[in-house]
Please model this.
Amino acid sequence: MFNDRIREVLSYVPSAIFPAIIFPAIFLNNSGFIQLDDNPKILASIIAMIIGVFSKNVLATIFSGLFSYWTIIFIF
Amino acid sequence: MSNKSKNFFKGIKDTSPLMIPVVPFGIIFGVLAIDLGLTPLMTIAMSVIIFGGASQIIFLQLFSAGASSFVILSSVGAVNSRHLLYGTVLSEHLSDLNLTWKIIVSYFLVDQAFAVSNNHFKKNKKDKDKYFHLIGGGLNCWTIWQITTIIGIYLGSIIPEKLGLTFAIPLTFLALLVNDFRKFINVIVIIISGSVATLGYQIIPYKAYVIVAAFVGLFVAFILTKFVKKNYE
Model:
């Protein structure tokens, strides 16, 4: 029913749809405007991404991001 | 033990190692749902009806932002479009089943069950009861998903709001993409889709930014895969 070409393009669905959730949740503030200064989510996400790329571990990625975020907002 | 139960228990056994990451995922979902104002009953109903991690979290995100039902349905549908592929791949082995069994099997066809059952079906082509392997694997996943949702609901009611746990939503999706950050075309698609969604958040009506960004990203993937040779990846 699906040829290889359609399968190839459909394999990009996660890369096409997940960033549409990820980016606004990181870069937009509660009022829906882009906030680049004083935004602890950006640094925490970069740390999570680096940990994720090297560990290839879903849980390590989520929890390194959360712990970085808490460290930034509660300690600094 | 009958052949059906043999297949059923083999399905449970084969999916079990893949259930470890499902546990915290289910708990995160339960916690977020309560955090975003859903009742415990709605949260459990969502886990029973939708029965899909990424879909339920996208649903929560859009629902709490006030998106329309049409936008929520199409976004959740887009996330689940990979199931079209799963269905077509498995149809080769399961086309003899009657409609009722096809519907039951489809409900239990989650990523983990697909991965192990597809292998099992290839090795046991002649076994007419082989679909019980998928039911076993799917039911294993289903049970863990419901239990961890309930644990999450309980934890969600005691975890303080100022921890900012909704930040777990982008982190969860980031974690699902870690294997794609090393591939050239994927990185381009990720950056374009993310930028369209962020810049379009205020402009694109009906909170349709997720679905618009996804289609732009997929179109870019379509163009790039046509022109960029595999060895550039």
Remarks:
- Chain B has a mean pLDDT of 90.
- The CA atoms of residues 90 and 118 of chain B lie 7 Å apart.
- Chain B touches chain A through 64 residues (CB under 8 Å).
- Chain B has twelve helices and no strands.
